[in-house]
Automatic annotation (TrEMBL):
The lineage of its organism: Bacteria, Pseudomonadati, Pseudomonadota, Gammaproteobacteria, Pseudomonadales. Keywords: Membrane, Transmembrane, Transmembrane helix. It comes from the Bacteria. InterPro entries: TPR-like_helical_dom_sf (IPR011990). This is Tetratricopeptide repeat-containing protein. The chain crosses the membrane at residues 93-114, 120-138, 159-181, 187-209, 230-250, 262-287.
Length: 495
């Protein structure tokens, strides 16, 4: 499921989103798992769900997930809610710039710096290609694409006019700066200068996303980018400013040792590389604040989806848990009953069903289900089987499984957990209850150990060993019987 969708919310949605339960900056969490970020929401139920509660069906990827409570279609919150903040991902932006696409792009700029004649037209062409490439990096990163665009993509498709638009934005900025300088006030000039520096990233982001000059120059649209990020926008600006300065710092450091003819291509290469890093960062910031910006974007890595059978199983478990947490236990039972009809031998479903029946005190139903669940659990999960048996004993003090092997397995597990009374009660009269059981000798040897080692009752232990000798003279366990008898002898002497 690498499906990626990018859709624009209606402005009214955005407004209601912002006026709703939270400001865009707050992370929403799963209503049922406080540590999990929410990825889906149901407005009528006023419930948000994390991936924890909303499994996806890989066999029907177009089916929108349904609310566990009202079965209405859930609304996707976008990956933004679970996205890592951009300032925690700084190394990944530098790594992004080291992919083949950006490196080839930077190398191309270096070559242009080395060989291109001083022709205005040729350089305009280079800048046009560069602007298009930078903008495609912002666009790709805003959709959480980890693969940088190829160099070839800078020469094909649409978007060459972006350069003209970007140039127009810079011209307007210079114009404003010019006017400020014209007033003769140094203070005003620096104020305007700083203001433009701060506004520029938001304007570039707008142009990259909307491709409209009007949007890039609109104070409202640019302001929306800034207000969506809030004070974190300043962090972005600080990082961008440092990155912007980096090529010139490096070039300055190299200036002493390198001839001019080498310096220009080096500077051009660094400009290309750091430019890509900056654009990747700006793009990711858009991804992180997509909801506030009015976009909904799914993470490229996406949420795990499961084949139909596994999906139904997970959905039943998740829905039942939601119902339980809502206190709607009957509905939870219904969900699990249906799921168990599809997958009667699923351990997790059975376990949940058992716990629910036990918790509800549905004695008869719980005991009936135990006849199926105990053999299953004793095969697949010893701790769950032990818990189930102890629960059964709470409902019915003399509860006994009606399967000899289950009794023996549970007895061994209970002995290990130092519950000899419960263990021995399972083995009592096993040869009468299950005359055809082929492992009576093995079970009684276990019982003899239980009496001797856990209860210090040597008499019953001896009787059981005697019984094995008489009934099963051919048993392969006689060696162990003799060893235990020897131990009993020693214990009796010291006693
Ligand atoms: Zn959850
Ligand atoms: Zn709902």
């Amino acid at each position: 499921m690498r499906a990626l969708f990018f859709c624009l919310l209606k402005p009214s949605d955005l407004m209601s989103w912002r006026a709703g339960r939270c400001t865009p900056m707050d992370k929403i969490h799963c209503h049922y798992h406080a540590a999990q970020p929410a990825t889906w929401t149901c407005r009528p139920c006023a419930r948000s769900y994390g991936d924890c509660c909303v499994p996806l069906n890989a066999d029907a990827p177009d089916d929108a997930p349904k609310c566990a409570l009202c079965a209405g279609t859930l609304e996707f919150l976008g990956a933004a809610n679970s996205a890592q903040p951009f300032w925690e991902r700084i190394p990944s932006f530098f790594a992004y710039g080291l992919q083949s696409g950006p490196l080839a792009f930077a190398a191309l700029l270096a070559l242009a710096g080395l060989f291109l004649p001083r022709s205005l037209l040729l350089w305009l062409l280079v800048f046009s290609v560069a602007t298009k490439y930078f903008h495609s990096v912002i666009e790709g990163s805003s959709q959480a694409e980890r693969q940088a665009p190829s160099l070839l993509s800078a020469f094909t498709g649409e978007g060459f006019t972006l350069f003209i638009k970007q140039l127009a934005v810079f011209m307007v900025a210079f114009g404003v700066l010019w006017l400020a300088a014209d007033t003769g006030s140094r203070g005003l000039f620096w104020l305007v200068n700083l203001g433009l520096l701060l506004v520029m990233p938001a304007s570039i982001i707008r142009l990259a996303l909307d491709k409209q000059l009007g949007a890039a120059l609109s104070p409202e649209q640019v302001g929306q980018v800034i207000s969506a990020m809030g004070w974190r926008y300043l962090i972005l600006c600080a990082f961008l400013f440092m990155l912007w300065q980096s090529p010139s710092w490096v070039t300055m450091m190299l200036a002493g040792g390198l001839p001019r003819v080498v310096l220009l291509p080096v500077a051009a290469f660094l400009f290309g590389y750091f430019g890509v890093v900056m654009c990747a960062m700006m793009g990711y910031a858009v991804f992180q604040y997509q909801a506030a910006l009015g976009y909904v974007i799914a993470d490229e890595e996406g949420q795990a989806a499961y084949p139909a059978a596994e999906f139904l199983r997970r959905k039943a478990l998740a829905d039942a848990q939601v119902r339980i947490k809502e206190g709607q236990l009957e509905q939870a039972l219904e969900i699990l009953t249906l799921a168990l009809q599809r997958a009667p031998d699923d351990l997790a479903l059975n376990e949940r069903f058992h716990q629910l029946l036990y918790g509800l005190g549905a004695r008869e139903r719980c005991l009936r289900h135990l006849a199926h669940y105990l053999p299953l659990a004793s095969r697949l999960s010893e701790p769950q089987a032990v818990t189930a048996l102890l629960n059964a004993r709470q409902l019915q003090a003399d509860y006994l499984p009606d399967d000899a092997l289950v009794c023996e397995r549970l007895a061994a597990a209970l002995l290990q957990r130092h519950k000899p009374r419960e263990a021995l009660s399972l083995l009592r009269n096993l040869h009468r209850r299950f005359p055809d059981y082929p492992h009576i000798a093995r079970a009684y040897l276990l019982a003899a150990r239980g009496f001797a080692e856990y209860l210090g009752e040597l008499g019953p232990a001896r009787q059981l060993l005697q019984f094995i000798r008489q009934r099963y003279p051919q048993s392969s366990l006689l060696g162990e019987v003799a060893a235990l008898e020897a131990t009993l002898d020693r214990l009796e002497k010291t006693a």
